[in-house]
Amino acid sequence: MNFTLYIHTFRQILHQRLRLVLTALVFLGSLLFYKIPGAFEKGYLTAPWFVWLLGNGLVGKDVSQGALHLYFTRPIHRASYLLTKWAALVTVATGLAWIHLLLGVSISGSSFDPAALATVGLAAFLLAAGMAALAAALSCWLSGMGDLPGYIGLIVSSLILKALLEHWNIPTESFQKAAEEFLFPGVSLAQSVASGTWGLGPWLPYLAVVLACLALGIWGLDRKELGYSQNA
Amino acid sequence: MSTTTTSTSGLSVKGLAKSYSGGRKSVLVDVHLEVPSGGAFGLIGPNGSGKTTLMGCLLGLLKADAGVIHIDGMSPEDMRAKAKIGYVPERIRFEPWMTGLQVMELHQGLAGVPESPEELRDLLRKVGLMEQAWERPVRTYSRGMLQRLALAQALVGKPSFLFLDEPTSGMDPTGVLDVRRILEEAQAAGMTILLNSHQLDQVGKICQGVAFLKDGRLEAMSMADAGAGLKHVVRLRFGAKAPKAKDLEPVLKAVGASLVPGALPEPKFKVEVADDATTSELVRALAKKGWDLVELAPEQDQLERLFLNRTPEGQP
């Protein structure tokens, strides 16, 4: 972790005016959902929106804008660079999701249950961390802001594959579960809370996806050559 | 690439090779280079000769196919080596919303040196960036101002090595002079400088050694040797007692020089000499004749001679 880069990533996020406007629209618009009974339990689902709206091109933009050249002539490990950018994005997305959750609870007028709020808040953090890891990995491999199209491409591919499996009468339950765990990396805390069991079961696939994404991102970044062109 | 630490100080490159497109396009071939600690070395060569690629390998931004690079005995990927480096890239692209001071603060933090606003202000003053511009976003900067800012960020933390890729391109003459002064001061302070520039006069004035890179192959030499043994043209201007071309020709022939016919109106002449030794002989021969030689100037300086001799455009 590099503290200078961590603060700089916050600044980068704050200087994306159009994205901030879009995020504000999503933030304010989605508050209305808290009027629906039971919507509070799904409050953590805003985190992926904040990740993609603010973190799209997390690494790819630094590459295409040429900033990475200078960063990597400084004493910073490439792994440290990626983990710092990821941590900053997780902080911003989680922070926004928590503020959104608190405002939503206030607006809904429902009774305030600290335990339930903490559970949804933790789920928001876990989903933000998972989605940011996926975004960071894609951003290391796809230039510019290609990570979001890449992510959408993965979702569409998984839907096509599922349809094909169904067409060939092959059971799709395991595939669907794996695809969901990979494309929406979070932990279903509600089930654990309801059953009162806190085993490692739901955590293992989540941790595997997050760690694999970060490792994939670091590998991609490590093998990246930062020349002005491939010609000279 | 070697990652071992050796006791050698300065910059050392041995057998460096780099290719693109899966090895189909060789850019650097068996490059050897030694720059002693505190020395200044110039990299010259035509466009596309591999200078920026060499710089990228030295900085650890590009991965070499073969060879060993040592910066004070360490691999360029070693964080201790990176902590000793300041770099001015050829294409300067700071984030447009940042101010000049913010760029400096960022690089001070990234360099891992103690926070010192005074150092940053001193550096910005040193490179001649106007104080009114420090708090302005860099998107409002001219090319020359960006060059100055890039040089200032490279000097953050007093690095031991300065890698400069065309540091004066787009600068006005004052800026060019400022850069020369700063690099002379840096060298006096013991910094090792590697300067990649098409401004050959700059390289000639700053560097003690020069390397000519062409088709990925590198030929290194001292500044004293650069271009000294090459055929070149000198301009002669005579005063009141001037020879005619027909009188001058036998004298030139005797020392191994030749007149470039019709190049200049008499009493000015252009003369092709084989090397620096021929020029000395020519001066002696002209003096012996009693002609009133008031000016003898090389048409090209040492490095221009070298450059023109080594590139297809300059070859007869």
Question: In short, what is this structure?
Answer:
Chain A is mainly alpha-helical. Chain A contains eleven helices and no strands.
Descriptive overview:
The complex is a heterodimer of chains A (232) and B (316). Chain A is mainly alpha-helical and 232 residues long. Chain A has one domain. In chain A, 71% of the residues lie in helices and 0% in strands. In chain A, helix 6 (78-108) crosses helix 11 (203-222). The two termini of chain A are 33 Å apart. Residues 1-7 of chain B have low confidence and may be disordered. In chain B, helix 3 (100-111) crosses helix 4 (117-126) and helix 4 (117-126) crosses helix 5 (143-154). In chain B, a hairpin with a 2-residue loop joins strand 8 and strand 9 (217-222). Chain B has ten helices and 13 strands. The chains are: A mainly alpha (232), B alpha/beta (316). The A-B interface holds A 2-5, 8, 11-12, 15, 65-67, 69-77, 223, 225-228, 230-232 and B 20-21, 25, 27, 47-53, 56, 59-63, 79-80, 82-83, 85, 87, 89-91, 93-95, 97, 102, 106-107, 109-112, 153, 163.
